[in-house]
């Protein structure tokens, strides 16, 4: 089961990187940005997950007390999204995104203090290497401001709280661990869609906009399902460490999707590819 969780986390990192590429492609094709895309994607995810909710009879697992769990998952997630938007506002997405690996020390500290976990020396060194490489990767796009760094740390901490909440929520369902994740995500994103429906009227998000976000929504569902599956089967810290590879996979996907844009920055991209390889080796060393 642990091995399946690790494999799921690897594919989740690929899915996250692909989602970023599809998001950029959607923005350029249909000019849907920011909060409007967030609304469109979440309504799309709710619509997609409505089908297994109905036809797999997942609705039979719902209890009203689950609303408390959904609140615990989504409140810190919304705060995390807010802090991320603030960090990008005072800095830049290419600088900020690699620094989300701050989730790793936050989660490791929580797991040591609350869950009495322990790690070997080489695992601490692997975490340090991942953090340093991510910092260097971020610095290639510019210097981060202290204010932005504080926002990224707050966002990382809130994402961790949301990750813990959804992992604990999934385990409440007395079914196979993989199906636990499917049920939890169904309830979570259908609730999210219901929350964003009134926002769609306020921001004038049309049905066409939701449809144009379909690949963003689908890739997000797949990656999040794999992420929570990784958390559920191999542990939160393990899954989070593997998620740090989304930047490395993002470079490969960028080479496929945006080769023409990268042609003018050959040396910079070669350096990023080198860092990505080193990042992959650092993640692999955690499991030695």
UniProtKB/TrEMBL annotation:
InterPro entries: EmrE-like (IPR037185). The chain crosses the membrane at residues 39-62, 93-115, 121-137, 149-170, 182-203, 215-234, 240-258, 270-287. Keywords: Membrane, Transmembrane, Transmembrane helix. This is Antimicrobial peptide.
